UniProtKB/TrEMBL annotation:
<dbReference type="GO" id="GO:0046872">
    <property type="term" value="F:metal ion binding"/>
</dbReference>
<keyword id="KW-0479">Metal-binding</keyword>
<dbReference type="InterPro" id="IPR016160">
    <property type="entry name" value="Ald_DH_CS_CYS"/>
</dbReference>
<dbReference type="Pfam" id="PF00171">
    <property type="entry name" value="Aldedh"/>
</dbReference>
<feature type="active site">
    <location>
        <position position="250"/>
    </location>
</feature>
<feature type="domain" description="Aldehyde dehydrogenase">
    <location>
        <begin position="16"/>
        <end position="473"/>
    </location>
</feature>
<dbReference type="InterPro" id="IPR016161">
    <property type="entry name" value="Ald_DH/histidinol_DH"/>
</dbReference>
<dbReference type="GO" id="GO:0008802">
    <property type="term" value="F:betaine-aldehyde dehydrogenase (NAD+) activity"/>
</dbReference>
<keyword id="KW-0560">Oxidoreductase</keyword>
<dbReference type="InterPro" id="IPR016163">
    <property type="entry name" value="Ald_DH_C"/>
</dbReference>
<keyword id="KW-0630">Potassium</keyword>
<dbReference type="InterPro" id="IPR016162">
    <property type="entry name" value="Ald_DH_N"/>
</dbReference>
<keyword id="KW-0558">Oxidation</keyword>
<protein>
    <recommendedName>
        <fullName>Betaine-aldehyde dehydrogenase</fullName>
        <ecNumber>1.2.1.8</ecNumber>
    </recommendedName>
</protein>
<keyword id="KW-0520">NAD</keyword>
<dbReference type="InterPro" id="IPR015590">
    <property type="entry name" value="Aldehyde_DH_dom"/>
</dbReference>
<dbReference type="InterPro" id="IPR029510">
    <property type="entry name" value="Ald_DH_CS_GLU"/>
</dbReference>
Amino acid sequence: MRAQPQASHFIDGAYIEDTSGAPIDCIYAADGTQIARLHEATPALIDKALAAAARAQVAWAALRPVERGRVLHKAAEIIRARNAELSELETLDTGKPLQETLVADASSGAEALEYFAGFAATVTGQTVPVGGGDFVYTTREPLGVCVGIGAWNYPTQIACWKAAPALAFGNAMVFKPSEVTPLCALKVAEILIEAGAPAGLFNVVQGRGAVGASLVTDKRVAKVSLTGSVPTGRKVYAAAAEGIRHVTMELGGKSPLVIFDDASVEDAVGAAMLGNFYSSGQICSNGTRVFVQKGLMPQFLERLKARTEAIVIGEPLEEETQFGPLITSEHLEKVMGYIELGLQEGATLITGGARLNRPGNYVQPTVFAGVTDEMTIAREEVFGPVMAVLEFESEAEVIARANATEFGLAAGVFTADLARAHRVAAAFEAGTCWINAYNLTPVEAPFGGSKLSGVGRENGHAAVEYYTQVKSIYVGTAPVDSPY
Ligand SMILES: NC(=O)c1ccc[n+]([C@@H]2O[C@H](COP(=O)([O-])OP(=O)(O)OC[C@H]3O[C@@H](n4cnc5c(N)ncnc54)[C@H](O)[C@@H]3O)[C@@H](O)[C@H]2O)c1
Ligand SMILES: O=CCc1c[nH]cn1
């Protein structure tokens, strides 16, 4: 099988197999062939991973931050040197075109490692005078063993966005990739060891929801960071609450992209396409509700249709392919169900809407216009290449409609009027917003959602809040004033 790893799990510095765990078959989304067979982690392996992490964390946290940073820097260097091989694996794991994975996945992981490598040694506390010569100083301490649980759309990026801050700040991690894309995180674990990380610091265990659930409730675990859907987020957040564990929840969205009629049409069309068709639409922050001001609508739709129909759909490993399959045949059925609902509920199909007559889970990039706020495709996360275009007239109206959703992951605005751009961005109820850009997620910027889309932030300075805890130390300098 073309992507079979050495073994299913990476625990305590080495690959390890136990075929008594239920099988996980990896299917290449572009042609339906099996590329690997892995096995779920047994309770004994889960225990081994958590014990290794707990042991490794103590010595790792005692290192100077600059020493921890050195290991992460080295890992980033190795990832960059092996980008071609890692990108090909990402493509096999997910079906995303190589054109994307060569620039967006392993390299994004490397950036996270570089960023947090440099950040580690800058983390300091405060000195707080409290009167009478006494003072309090604070330190930021690691949380301990962190559990990372990943979604399937960005397996390398998700593993690195969680591992990099966790390790930089002195924690250890047990990571469970999505059972749909189990391959890439193993490479991250292998590379960290090659870079000099101690055995046990970053472990990968495979499995479905039950394996994730057993990690979340283990007494050795201090923090859980999940990237996944809102329904899973509810379960994981509740389970973590039982043990009063720290959490980061990176969940789903139904984000608005608002285009005023003074915007550059080409830029707005380009952003709407990026925010709906990149990774075949399987990106959490996608701007799937595209609000276009009435005056611009005809021109916008004309250019959108022409440019969408020119997208090169094909075999993901071929260089010219811009658009690949959906992750699984089950997900293809789900996305086709939403397209069917769009038609039934009266939206106008501008382009796409059909599956491709070839092996693999291919559906055309699809655009619906005439979408109203009540339609299912305007309310629910499709997580596929289905753009809903809605018309609006005024700024006040579009802000109210953009915010009328239970999600709050992201939002974008296109306009030539910068005062309006800032006003609209300030009014968005979303954790991550863009002005005259969409879906750019540099590691320097905090990323995450509000409302049902999540709790906490990944990346940027904000990440230190989610992978450390503050300790206050009061220093008395005078005789103790006791009434007893
Ligand atoms: N906000 C973000 O940063 C972000 C990024 C990528 C994807 N997502 C979201 O992820 C979803 C798509 O990914 P998915 O289908 O893999 O999501 P999912 O919720 O089905 O699964 C996510 C992960 O949770 C695990 N899991 C399932 N049940 C569990 C339980 N009870 N306890 C512990 N772990 C459990 C799964 O095995 C998987 O590893 C979309 O909603 C998308 O928007 C969010
Ligand atoms: O899928 C969600 C996270 C993300 C956004 N852009 C790239 N990755």
